[in-house]
């Protein structure tokens, strides 16, 4: 354009005299009193700035700078490795992966929340490949799924130079200070800084705790107020006269609608309508909502509340769960936006009335406050791996009473950011029979996303245990079987649990790559055997990986296998339709996934199913609360148990999250502290501010 | 300098060939093989970069940009006012007030934590003037201390153009969703964004909750483990063999020292030493540590824990307090650095052993973990007022069982930042008899800071109530006395409560400015009368202020009065020496501050005093837990009660925070929810993300 040379040295993005530019009522063609060159320059500027805006809205190719890693041998402690690496400033990382400045909110130097407006901006951008990391049935020997997720992403991004993103769950603080330690990966496959990952992060779990406990306080206070006040007093307090005007709040109008009352003038309600409006009439014995803390506090497993005289004898037995067991955590993980989260929070059922009607958070008038408390928690947190690849940390629901997967929103944001040729690697809790099955049937159903590849993590040690190796116990030396070569145990483990878990993934039509997480005691013959048998069992590929000791470089082979599998067509299908009756859904999971002969429902479970059907919950997906230590309901049964009937002890529902969870055995929702918890070794140097003892 | 012209166009801050510059072992004078001009250039660069560094370390004058305020009439709701103002990006604010980039950690766009390294950098910088805002005895009619703090700082900074900083307490979330609403000020004197201020802020209270409850879980788990294991089993678990080596952790070595055991080889302890080491022998009836939640949950006021079968019958009655009542909050507010905080956390007494010895957090092995959980909470959070003046929000301990003041560290950082001619305005909870007395005797004693001015806040309405006006009750119309002019009630209020509170401030040798927070029903005659009588009672000045309706402009007269009072010499003195015996300290506060004839100790209180003296706690300052609604212990006694004896029901101690707190009556440490809590009106628009209903 002939104007370009004129503009070459005129830097301003818009012409300097903006005050007379496009005044109200003037179209761009009316430029009275302005010479033709000025007008042309202005026009040029408009064109340029529009195109800059449009460019700003487009997908931005990555310019990811990897962090150099020089692994030491022997491998130092996790916190030493984490501390030895300097993370990139998080705003730099955000820029490298194409985020706009206004799309991030830094929390310190190394963490940032990412705004959901990104989904609007990149609406037209095709998603990347979606990879799920699942595991064989867990054993006390550990499998290292998180390290595989991180190692794989380090390999894909830093070594194969493919855009890739890890999506991880935020760990509960309970186990960090209790037994398990942190969850930021390990060795040379970690999220850094690992202490930020393992501590408060950006406060999401604290927000869940606050929201959960506000509901609990509202329930008990409401029961007390209803028990001690007549309808009229309740009504005049619930709908008070403010400056002479009585008005229902929007939350109260929603309750009136559910009660079938269309009147919105408070003075016009009939006494019977007033009574149904003011009385939730919660049955104290049927309150299902529990309080939570993010601390391993076993003494809160069963408690009696309301014993102060101010509560007038309204004592009640209840319990605290660990915060991540809150239904609000499951909702955070499944919501696909602020509106959806708010709707789910409002419809959470907290108990039932004496007449058997469900009572919701919205009935309590608390749903707006819950959405306000959760408004920042809904934004995923961006961090990075030891090699500078991006990681989203977001949500971490329990993997038994909930679905155990990181958030739908983190996956969606990441799939847009990596672009069509990129990879998003996300993780499912527990073994593939639990975490992966729920990933497919619950999470993918909620999100509409379809997986391309399953990475199934195994270790030689765990396979040996599934093959019949002896039990191990904490504190005792590891039996020889797990240290010396033992091909026959490996064969048995591969032909039982590994083969079965591969078959489960194939039920859903998704190709499987087996990742053998190598320990230093594994022999080459054992490694080769696992890989060979995995492929014979139908895996697209099976490769050893060494990210723990060597970082991304140690998992390049896995990355290549995943890339290859991702280029194959995936024929994803759900295991069941949501129209299938509740009992049939449970039976299909028990038989096809767990290998049970059949299921057996307790009378309580049968009664609940009838109740849920009557309430219209019959179409919800199923979230099995089963032990993770066996494909069956019996934790000691390793390998591939057969010939068992799965007992369904009871059934519960998370209506806000949107699933029904049958209880197969007793699930602990509150871990305890051992005699010597992790916290004995955790310390802070007040001068250097260095933390020790986290792992 | 002749070199300057040579350097004019050579931009790099250091010479480009740094790899050969100042190699190890070479002094700056040995520049072998380098020409004289190069050497001179390098020297110039060193000088420049050293001086840049030194300049970077110096105090930086402020370049504060005020935000324009155009107050509307009638005054809109707090959230509407907050939302109508666009805050400056917090990094810009930080730069304007002289913070270095590396001294701040942004939390989103409008909040940043400020690192304590600032105190080192500005060590030599003289402090600004230190202004405390206190109030007359509170009434249900409200006084508005927070709005005075904010309005005064808006006036000082945006209108008098003096560097000034507001230091506020972080509010508990409990009341925000319960009865009281938020605490970000009100009208045109607010901290913005008010929803950030009132919600999670930067997570400090959540960190306190996590730390507090980790101690609680550790206590009950430890009692269970000690009750169910013999010495040998406990010892082998507490000091396990890891890879064949047994070693005490540093926290355990600290416990051994307290027990007088110098041995550090675990295998060399005598059986009796092992027993004293492994057994804290906590008496379940003498555990003083409580769990906390930041929710108004009245049903947790008295509970029974440990009722699950896994806890083997070790049930115990206990309670939850609101999170801000945790001793850890009091510690956060009084600590003057990370090391001091860690020491205080370690020495917190959680109960006593069966033999009557205090058991500390360090004995539980949890003190390092507590410091780790609190490492970010110790950094004050920077926000801004509606007019763009800086605000620190940090800590918010209870004002009865603790000292009710914002943090020492926020005040210290702010006093350095405002510089010698600047002002730091901080707030004390409740009336001057409580908040101000504790500010002087506890907070100033801990910090070493000395106040220059006390601003005493009063309202015509509250003075009328102190003068004998009728009681008011929520929901009923306000009696005429408070709406119409009533000079005789004003006279009585001024000559009783206002005069007494001025006298209390003078006990400490600090000049007083009375700030009359004007309501629209106040008449000019009433306003003039209060100001006149305040000055007659010894106030340096007394002025009406209108910040609620008009922002900083409405409090310029107050700002000028404070500036004037701050230029007078202050002769600060403590009310008592810490060497004074406990009983005498209590008596001095009761007689000189409250106006009691004497004190009366219950036998429990006397026994506790003997115990505390025996334990060496006798030199701690006193933190009275008295009703805030009267100068006496009887809430209904307004004005200046006389002729009463102050009963001391019991005495407790916060050894970590460092004070003893006598209980005068029963203090509720857990608020409840009313029939219609605030949360009914709180909502979030999922599209605009706008919050409604916070106030």
Helices and strands in order, then pairings?
The structure is a homodimer of 695-residue chains.
Chain A: H1 2-7, H2 36-57, H3 78-84, H4 90-96, E1 104-106, E2 112-114, H5 117-121, E3 129-135, H6 145-159, E4 164-168, H7 173-177, E5 185-186, E6 189-192, H8 194-198, H9 204-228, H10 231-238, E7 241-242, E8 245-246, H11 250-258, H12 271-278, E9 282-287, E10 291-293, E11 303-305, E12 316-318, E13 320-322, H13 327-334, H14 338-346, E14 349-353, E15 358-360, H15 367-373, E16 381-385, E17 390-393, H16 408-418, E18 423-427, H17 432-447, E19 453-458, H18 460-466, H19 487-507, E20 512-517, H20 524-536, E21 541-545, H21 547-550, H22 556-566, H23 582-594, E22 598-601, H24 603-615, E23 645-648, E24 650-654, E25 659-663, E26 683-684, E27 691-692
Parallel strand pairs in A: 3-18, 3-19, 4-17, 4-18, 10-13, 19-20, 20-21, 22-23
Antiparallel strand pairs in A: 1-2, 2-16, 5-6, 6-16, 7-8, 9-14, 11-12, 14-15, 16-17, 24-25, 26-27
Helix pairs in contact in A: 6-22, 9-15, 10-12, 14-15, 18-19, 19-20
């Amino acid at each position: 354009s002939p104007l370009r040379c004129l503009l070459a040295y005129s830097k301003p993005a818009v012409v300097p005299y903006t005050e007379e530019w496009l005044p109200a009522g003037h179209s761009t063609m009316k430029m009275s009193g302005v010479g033709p060159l000025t007008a042309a320059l202005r026009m040029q500027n408009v064109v340029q700035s529009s195109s800059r805006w449009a460019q700003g809205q487009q997908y931005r190719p990555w310019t990811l700078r990897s962090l150099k890693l020089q692994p030491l041998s022997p491998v130092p402690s996790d916190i030493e490795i984490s501390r030895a690496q300097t993370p990139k400033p998080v705003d730099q990382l955000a820029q490298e992966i194409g985020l706009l400045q206004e799309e991030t909110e830094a929390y310190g130097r190394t963490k940032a929340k990412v705004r959901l407006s990104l989904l609007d901006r990149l609406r037209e951008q095709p998603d990347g490949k979606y990879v799920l990391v699942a595991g064989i049935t867990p054993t006390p020997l550990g499998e290292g799924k998180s390290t595989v997720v991180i190692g794989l992403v380090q390999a894909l991004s830093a070594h194969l130079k493919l855009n890739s993103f890890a999506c991880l769950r935020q760990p509960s603080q309970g186990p960090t200070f209790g037994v398990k330690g942190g969850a930021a990966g390990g060795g040379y496959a970690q999220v850094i800084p690992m202490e930020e990952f393992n501590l408060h992060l950006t406060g999401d779990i604290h927000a869940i705790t606050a929201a959960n406990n506000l509901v609990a306080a509202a329930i008990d206070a409401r029961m007390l107020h209803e028990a001690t006040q007549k309808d009229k007093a309740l009504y005049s307090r619930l709908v008070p006269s403010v400056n002479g005007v009585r008005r229902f709040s929007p939350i109260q109008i929603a309750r009136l609608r559910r009660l079938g009352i269309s009147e919105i003038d408070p003075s016009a309600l009939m006494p019977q309508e007033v009574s149904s409006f003011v009385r939730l009439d919660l049955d104290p014995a049927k309150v299902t909502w529990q309080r939570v803390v993010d601390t391993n506090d076993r003494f809160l497993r069963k408690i009696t509340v309301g014993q102060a005289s101010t509560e007038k004898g309204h004592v009640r037995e209840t319990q605290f769960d660990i915060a991540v067991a809150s239904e609000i955590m499951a909702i955070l993980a499944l919501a696909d936006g602020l509106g959806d989260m708010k709707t789910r929070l409002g419809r959470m059922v907290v108990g039932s009335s004496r007449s058997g009607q469900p009572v919701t958070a919205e009935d309590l008038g608390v749903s707006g406050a819950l959405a306000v408390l959760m408004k920042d928690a809904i934004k995923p947190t961006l961090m990075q791996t030891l090699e500078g690849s991006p990681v989203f940390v977001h949500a971490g629901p329990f993997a038994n009473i909930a679905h155990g997967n990181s958030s739908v929103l983190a996956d969606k944001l990441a799939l847009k950011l990596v672009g069509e040729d990129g990879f998003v690697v996300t993780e499912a809790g527990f073994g593939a029979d639990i975490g992966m099955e729920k990933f497919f049937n619950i999470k993918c159903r909620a999100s509409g996303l379809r997986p391309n590849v399953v990475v199934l993590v195994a270790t030689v040690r765990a396979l040996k245990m599934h093959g019949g190796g002896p039990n191990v116990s904490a504190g005792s030396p590891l039996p020889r079987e797990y240290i010396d070569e033992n091909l026959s145990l490996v064969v048995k483990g591969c032909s039982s649990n590994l083969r079965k878990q591969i078959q489960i993934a194939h039920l859903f039509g998704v190709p499987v790559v087996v990742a053998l997480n190598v320990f230093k005691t594994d022999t080459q013959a054992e490694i080769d055997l696992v890989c060979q048998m995995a492929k014979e069992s139908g895996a697209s590929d099976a490769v050893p990986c060494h990210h723990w000791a060597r970082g991304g470089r140690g998992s390049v082979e896995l990355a290549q296998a995943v890339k290859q599998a991702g280029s194959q067509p995936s024929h994803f299908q759900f295991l069941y339709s949501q129209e299938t009756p509740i009992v049939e859904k449970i039976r299909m999971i028990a038989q096809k996934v767990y290998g049970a002969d059949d299921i057996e429902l307790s009378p309580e479970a049968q009664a609940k199913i009838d109740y849920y059907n009557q309430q219209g919950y019959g179409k919800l997906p199923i979230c099995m609360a089963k032990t993770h230590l066996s494909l069956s309901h019996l934790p000691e049964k390793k390998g591939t148990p057969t010939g068992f009937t799965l007992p369904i002890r009871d059934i519960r529902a998370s209506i806000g999250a949107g699933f029904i969870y049958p209880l197969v055995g007793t699930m602990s929702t509150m871990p305890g502290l051992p005699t010597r918890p992790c916290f004995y070794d955790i310390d802070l140097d007040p001068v250097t501010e260095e933390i020790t003892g986290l792992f």
